[in-house]
Amino acid sequence: MMDRKFKFSFPERNVQDSIVFSMVSEFKIEPSILRAAIDDDGCGVLILRLRGDDELIEKALRYAEDQDVEIDELGDHIMRDEQRCFSCGACVSVCPTKAFTLDPETFKVNLNIEKCVACGSCLSACSAHAVTLTL
Ligand code: SF4
Ligand code: SF4
Questions:
Q1: Residue 119 CA: which ligand is closest?
Q2: Which CATH number fits the domain 2-74, given the four candidates 3.40.50.261, 3.30.230.10, 3.30.70.260, 3.40.50.1010?
Q3: Is there an atom of ligand 2 within 6 Å of 100 CB?
Q4: Helix (H) or strand (E) segment spanning residue 57
Q5: Smallest Cα–Cα separation from 22: which of 4, 8, 2, 41?
Q6: CA–CA separation, 113 vs 43, rounded Å?
Q7: From CA 102, how far away is CA 116, in angstroms rounded?
């Protein structure tokens, strides 16, 4: 059983539901929607966690790509420049998933990439421009 996260970019919003439904019904994978949004250019964006057999996940991804969905896998999609970061905590307060947390003992801000859903809130909050999103 694999557990992977992806960004799906849809050219039109109205295809989201049927594609995700088909991924569940045809490929027996379990999707969890971590974030749904509309980009500045009007594209629909879903951040999905997919659980299931890796081969079936790959087939589901190919199916979605055939429906003109652009897919990026989340992994090292967010980076923090340790030299720039001065642990001010601004990102901690805006991060909806607690990917950024403040260590109460060291007062150092830590980043757990696994929890990040690529919302981008921390980018504008960080006055040091220490955070980079590559999606
Ligand atoms: S907002 Fe920027 S400088 Fe402040 S803790 Fe977060 S990453 Fe570091
Ligand atoms: S992009 Fe930044 S604010 Fe958004 S979930 Fe990831 S770490 Fe948190």
A1: 2
A2: 3.30.70.260
A3: yes
A4: helix 54-66
A5: 8
A6: 24
A7: 15
User: Both tokens of residue 12?
Assistant: 């039109």
Look up residue 105 and give its two tokens. 């003992």
Residue 118 Cβ inside 6 Å of ligand 2? The answer reads: yes
Q: Spell out the per-residue pLDDT of the chain, length 135, in tens.
A: 788 999 998 886 555 568 888 888 888 888 899 999 887 777 888 999 999 999 999 999 999 999 889 999 998 899 999 999 999 999 999 999 999 999 999 999 999 999 999 999 999 999 999 999 987
CA–CA distance, 91 with 93 (Å, rounded to integer)? 5
pLDDT of residue 54: 92
pTM reported for the whole predicted model: 0.82
